[in-house]
Amino acid sequence: MDIQIIALFSAPVVSIIALIYGYILSQRIMKEDMGNAKLQQIAKAVKDGALSYLARQFKVVFPIMGVLAVVIALTLGIGMSLTFLLGGIFSALIGYFGMRIAVEANVRTAHNSTKSLNAALQTSFGAGTVNGMLVVGLGLLGVSLIYMYSYFAFISQGADAVAKNATEVLVGYGFGAALLALFMRVGGGIFTKAADVGADLVGKVEKGIPEDDPRNPATIADNVGDNVGDCAGMAADVFESYALTIVAAMILGGSLFGLKGVVFPLLARSGSILTSIL
């Protein structure tokens, strides 16, 4: 069987397997005990704050994305614009669900730490694995869908036409992922540091409240910032790096080896994901 056909179907299938595996792990984490009422109360405050932050951020970012998509469509073509939106939407999804699993795993990890170090490690490591599967699954899925469209739309014109179109529109996918990652990483970092300084100055210095005391509202905001910056922002940032490395490898491979050079990164990443799961 031709390597192009193998890559055409194996990459999206493997990416879906990664997403299913991440979903199974997340459901396993959600079934764990959340601990006492005090733990759950603090966790709910952090979760509500993180969701409110992301909702506010997306209200600002998505209109900007829409304007940029129109500009790209008018200047570089509708294909580039659509892949730009796809990259941005996938980056936003990874940031959102990455943050959701983080806030859900936080309280369960804290409760499991009262039982044993291993139980807490298993919960936290599982949450990190969910994020990892989400990043590689959506990252590979987006690129493979773009390649699949290019293949069926341009294969009648030859392999060179497929390689040329795929490598051109993939740039938009990388740009969309990078734009959302910039907003989520930098915005989350600013929020985190502002809350951290507020918790230190107002709580510890002025009022004499211990730094990590949950009675200090700024401490809750600090924990919200840790989730939106170090979890949602980091997930989007890693997704951007992952997507751009695939895009760069496909562009370089296409310029040197044609269509076979374009599909090789898809096969390599598919094999890596399966190896990690096994």
UniProtKB/TrEMBL annotation:
GO MF term list: diphosphate hydrolysis-driven proton transmembrane transporter activity; inorganic diphosphate phosphatase activity
**Superkingdom assignment:** Bacteria
Does the UniProt entry include the keyword Nucleotidyltransferase?
no
Q: Does the keyword Magnesium apply?
A: yes
Its annotated compartments are:
Endomembrane system
Q: Name one GO cellular component term.
A: endomembrane system
The record's keywords, sorted A to Z, are:
Ion transport, Magnesium, Membrane, Translocase, Transmembrane, Transmembrane helix, Transport
User: Where is this protein chiefly located?
Assistant: membrane
Pfam families found in the cross-reference section: H_PPase
The transmembrane segments are 6-24, 60-78, 124-149, 169-186, 242-268
- The molecule here is called K(+)-insensitive pyrophosphate-energized proton pump
